[in-house]
Amino acid sequence: MKCSSIKSSKTGKRHVWAVFPLLSLLLFAACGENETFEEPDTVPPSAVTALNAIVGDGQVTLNWTDPTEDDFDHVEITCSRSEEKIFVEKGIQTALITGLINGEEYTFSLTTVDAAGNAGRSVVTPPCIPVSVDPGDVTPPAEVSELSGEAGNGKVTLRWTDPTDADFAKVSITYSPGGTTAIEIGKGRQEAVIAGLKNGSEYVFTLKTADVAGNMSAGIVSDGFTPEATVVTPPSGASADYTINGVRFTMIYVEGGTFTMGSDAEAALPGTQRANQAHEHQVTLSSYWIGETEVTIALWNAVMGSGGGSNTTPIASITRNQSVEFARRLNDIAHNQGLIPDDMNFQIPTEAQWEFAAKGGNKSKGYTYSGSNKLSQVGWTSNDGGIHAVKQKQPNELGIYDMNGNVYEWVYDMAAPYTTQPQTDPCNTSGSQYIKRGGSFYYNDAYRFTSTYRYFYTSTDYTIGTRISLR
Predict the structure, then answer these.
(1) So which residues are the signal peptide here (predicted)?
(2) Domains and CATH numbers, the chain
């Protein structure tokens, strides 16, 4: 047996099996300072989300949400019982898979592909077992059991246990007020996130079960759930853990405050690009979160599509724009999975956020480096060899690691001289050069590792990584 065709339930178009080559070439430049190059597109698209599979008589219907990248092109679907592939064009987001054998178990893997041929991370359905329809069957399946729910910011997450009927196919969810169009969840998923709800309003949900013959149960009604925008102000230096596609990372809370950015004293001394620190000025920042460590290879791969890699070694050889794209995709995943509120977003830190966090925020003790006046206590330099695992040196006052040495870190701002005017939440988006901060294992000149040193750059090299922020 093989999955012989897919028919779009939206267009009626039957798609032909096709195999697409994977473009997996990853080019990272190890270039000297100020050397530029033209970057090929090697960044894969994000994975599909909200994948849902509904079994029928000799068929399975798949529904999903496409990624949001502009260059996303199509989804490739493979069946566990066939080596062939089929593509579904961008925007269709559904496929009816026919010609299946009732009683046999199938899984389906969906892989996103962009216009350059880059393939994203695959998402796999739960096991699907098509069931034949008994024309005389007028008995609906049993109701779901163990129904529970959790209200969040503008959303409610429902969880339940499916009935055990062999011909059970899906759960149909409606809610009041407003949710009259049924949300269908296939067998095995047993969870639904209902988003777009109004904070402060109580919602009641009705869950009905349906079998392959279309018989539907009377349904059960949930308790009332009231979404709320919860605002919690943690202490400065507090931590919060997140998991993205199986990779865990930690964010540190930086309470907002006012500090002196730049260093006229450092700028007056000789050294490469040391003058960039000139014009000390007052900066006031709102509160935000910042990565406890530099972005690791594992986290980068979990977000960018390939998976795998060390969760202790920082990613390097990345450009500033790739860092921004990484943060954008991380942000999309976090929102889709309900990990962060709708009004918060991941990005790479602004230059002011980076410097304030490196100095220890409102807990600063005025150290030259991030957490110490002795560089060897907090940062890896060329005296120590190449890239090291994160969190091997002591943290700074906020509990943040490796803001000096190991790998340089891109910030969001474009390069420009400081002015002496006070600023609030500054971010410069004009210019042709980028900014890397913190020094790296390539150097041992102490001045490069101070919390105020800023290096203007146009490309990348094997010494540059990134960190993330959340606000």
Answers:
(1) 1-29
(2) 5-124 (2.60.40.10), 145-221 (2.60.40.10), 239-470 (3.90.1580.10)
